[in-house]
Specification:
It contains five helices and four strands. It is an alpha+beta fold and 146 residues long. The chain has a four-stranded antiparallel β-sheet with strand order 1-2-3-4. Strand 3 and strand 4 form a beta hairpin. Helix 4 crosses helix 5 (69-86). The radius of gyration is 21 Å and the shape is globular.
């Protein structure tokens, strides 16, 4: 009886280890925000699409301007890229160190808040809202507070 129990536990352990190899751990919402910023700063649109739902984020502006969300997104990324490369004051590296970062996860939704910590910072708060899509977090909204 004792050996039967040991064999059963050993079998369960092997099965659970095999299953855990098949399940990829989901990256944190903060990791997704950082990867999105990195992909956009190098204008790697294909990589950035893995981290953002362009339609959801840019469709409100697209409807106002009667243009495609994808075009508005690319124009915004291009603007940031040109700004960073035309001035010594700006860089295409996001200054995460100038923000207090708060990550909140609530089931299939999450929020990453970047709260400005320096006096006189123009943007006081950046809020990324994310949802789970295809077993990964995706940015579905970006808000700025001045």
């Amino acid at each position: 009886m004792k050996s039967y129990l040991v064999c059963l536990l050993f079998g369960l352990l092997i099965i659970s280890c095999k299953q855990s190899k098949d399940v990829k751990p989901m990256e944190s919402p903060l990791a997704i925000v950082i990867k999105l910023e990195a992909a956009e700063s190098s204008k790697d649109y294909d990589a950035a699409r893995n981290y953002i739902d362009v339609e959801q984020v840019y469709s409100p502006v697209a409807k106002q301007e009667k243009r495609a969300a994808e075009d508005i997104w690319k124009e915004f990324v291009e603007f940031k890229y040109l700004l960073a490369n035309s001035s010594k004051k700006f860089t295409n590296t996001f200054p995460f160190h100038k923000y207090k970062i708060i990550e909140t996860i609530n089931g299939d939704t999450s929020e990453v808040k970047l709260l400005g910590i320096e006096e006189g910072q123009r943007i006081k708060e950046i809020i990324y809202e994310l949802t789970v899509q295809n077993n990964s977090w995706k940015v579905v909204s970006i808000g700025y507070k001045k």
